[in-house]
Amino acid sequence: MRAAEQPVEPARPGWPARLHVVTGKGGTGKTSVAAALALALAAGGRRTLLVEVEGRQGIAQLFGTDPLPYEERHLTDAPGGGEVRALAVDAEAALLEYLDMFYKLGAAGRALRKLGAIDFASTIAPGVRDVLLTGKVKEATTRTDGQRRVYDAVVLDAPPTGRVGRFLNVTAETARLAKVGPIKTQSEGVAALLRSPMTAVHVVTLLEEMPVQETLDAVTELTAFGFPVGRIIVNGTRPPLPAGRATSHAELRRGLLAAGLPADRDTVAGLHAEAVDQTVRRELEETLRAELAEAGRPLVELPLLPAGVDRDGLVTLAAALVRAD
User: Fold this and answer.
1) 201 falls in which pLDDT band (50, 70, 90)?
2) What span, in angstroms and rounded, lies between the C-alpha atoms of 26 and 252?
3) CB of 20 within 8 A of CB of 155?
4) How confident is the model at residue 141 (pLDDT cuts 50, 70, 90)?
5) Which residues form the ArsA/GET3 Anion-transporting ATPase-like domain (predicted)?
């Protein structure tokens, strides 16, 4: 049976938020984790929305689809009959939608596109781009069809840890600076959602020194801003190595001879060096795990995918996320 056909149980109450913001240092696999989380939360007949805001089209590349437009569309089915939709939020399109919604400037607003509307707006009101991006995410998260929420959960593939605090906090700053009007109202609504129990900000890391340090810094910054930090997700973990000292040259040679394998000096020396390296790696990873645990947030470990991240790999990651306590 293909991994993509294996059942993934619906996500348990361990993921209670409605908006899941996923950040991490570049190269940690945050887009893959965000996609896997969207699959996990959609399993069992639910509907989730996977959103990106950086213009990288990382979701389209991950799923091998055409670039995503500023339009919510079906991305993939989830195990158990669920659905994942995707949206790439474009700041200019969001501005035009905003102008039409609050000021009824449909045709006139579209004419602004030729004049570089978003560049103009960003110049006179720094941060407006991020306000528009987060505002669209908030609208999708809270939208109803008259009776129930359109999406059971929204997963945001957010900017990396170095920028995520400022990105999320810009709405609070805008609400503070704006005195009246729709901009102030919208900014206050977004700021309230991002600091409410409906939101959880998850930080993706690897068991490497720089990503772990950025993760700890991000948790501190997000907490200071008042954002609810969810889980620290350790991506690309390898099976733990057996405890104990590195095997000696003599032990390696006896083992190779017993197995009928070459046991010349160069082979034994190479294997011993590899064993020492693996021991050092294991000790460093345990130290980094302990540092992450001190942050006081739940840890989730996802396995390394030797074949890379494809559809089957995403389902494997989704299953691991679901199993997390």
Assistant:
1) very high
2) 39
3) yes
4) very high
5) 20-176
